[in-house]
Amino acid sequence: MANDKKNNAIPELLSDQSWRNSDLDKRFFEPTYSGAMSLLRRPYSVAFDDADIVVAGIPFDNATTFRPGCRLGPRAVRAASVQLAELPSFPFGFDPFSILKVIDSGDFLLNPHNPETIISDIYKQAISIISSGASLLSIGGDHFVTYPLLKAHAEIYGPISLLQFDAHCDTWKSFGELDHGTMILRAIEEGLIDVENSIQVGIRTHNDFDVGIKQITSPQIHEIGLPAVVELILNHLKGRKVYLSFDIDVLDPAFAPGTGTPVSGGIASWQALSIIRSLEPLNMIGFDIVEVSPPFDHAEITSIAAATILHDWICVKALQKS
Ligand SMILES: [Mn+2]
Fold first, then answer.
1. Dist CA 163 CA 165 (whole Å)
2. Please, is 17 exposed, middle or buried when counting C-beta atoms within 10 Å of its C-beta (0-12, 13-18, 19+)?
3. Are the C-beta atoms of 99 and 322 separated by less than 8 Å?
4. How close is the Cα of 181 to the center of ligand 1, in Å?
5. Cα 230 to ligand 1 centre (Å)
6. Less Cβ around it within 10 Å: N or C end of the chain?
7. How far apart are the CA of 239 and the centre of ligand 1, in A?
8. Rounded distance from Cα 145 to ligand 1 centre (Å)
9. What is the 249 CA–ligand 1 centroid distance (Å)?
10. Torsion of CA 162, 236, 129, 250, to 10 degrees
11. Are 185 and 172 in contact (CB under 8 A)?
12. Cα–Cα nearest to 214, from 254, 169, 180
C-alpha cells in the first residue's frame, strides 16, 4: 500500500509557479498556455513586507462614461503577460526578478453595489500595501481608481508629481461622485497633486478649464519626436516623487482598441514603450495602468500592450536597484 502511494505521487512540481514558487528571486519554465495566471507568473502572496513591488488588480468600472468592461482588465492583462514571463527581458537582457522581489496580491475586494464604499475600500487596501514600504503596481479598472490611489500615496508621501499618460486630461468638472473624467481635478482640489511639477502626456481632447498641469499633446509628440518628449518629461519631474498613471487610451485605437473611450490620433505602442524605458532617472513611487476593456479588444492587442508596459516599468525599477 505504501509502495502504491509512492508510485502515484507526482515527483516534482515545477509548473504553476504563481502559487508553487516559494523563491521570490527565482522563476522556472512552464508552458505559456497553461497554469494559474498571475502577473508575469509572479507568486501570489500577501507578504507585503518581503516585496519591492506588489501587484494588485482593481476590477472596477462603474465610473465609465461610455463603454464599460474594464472590470475585466486585471485578468486579461495577467493572461497576456505569460509570454513576457518566459524569456529574459527585452531589450534589457536580464531577469528583473533576480533583482526585484515582485508578488501578485490578487484583486482588491470591492462591492460595486455599494458605490459609497468604493473610494474608501480602494484607499484602505492601497494603504495596507504601500505602508509596508513596497511600491504598488495596480491594474484597473477604469481611471477613477487613480483618485483613491493618489489619496493613499499622498497620505504616505505628501503631494505627488503626477505623470499621466492619457488621451483625456480627466480634469473636467464633475457631475457626480464616481466619474473617470473628473477625478484628477478632484485630486488637485484636495491637494493630493503637486500641480506645477506634474505632466500629462498624449492628450488629444479639449477642456476649456486649464488646471495648470503641463501638457504634451499627441500632435506635439508626433511633431517633436521621442527624444524631445523624454527630455521634457525628465526635466519637469526629476528629483520629485512621481506617481505614474497610464491610461491605455493614450495609445491610438489601432494599438489599443480594447478601451472604453478611444480617441483617434494617439501614439503607438512602440512610442509608449520607448518613453517608459527612458524613465530610469525618475523616482517613481507607484504605477497604475487603467482602462483596458477586454470585451472591446481583438486578438489581445490591448492587453498585450498593457502587459508589456507593466513589464518594462518593472525592468526600469530593476535597473534602478541594480
Ligand atoms: Mn483617463
1. 7
2. buried
3. yes
4. 6
5. 20
6. N
7. 25
8. 10
9. 7
10. 50
11. yes
12. 169
Listed residues: CB within 5 A of ion ligand 1? 143, 166, 168, 170, 247
Q: Write down the pTM of the prediction.
A: 0.95
Distance 26 CA to ligand 1 centre (A): 35
In this prediction, residue 2 carries a pLDDT of 43
* Residue 42 DSSP symbol: P
Residue 185 CA, ligand 1 centroid: distance in Å: 12
Supply 152's cell numbers.
493613499
Give the residue ranges of the chain where pLDDT is below 50: 1-4
Q: Ligand 1 centre from 260 Cα, in Å?
A: 10
Identify the structural domains of the chain with CATH numbers, from first to last.
Answer: 38-321 (3.40.800.10)
Q: What is the pLDDT of residue 249?
A: 98
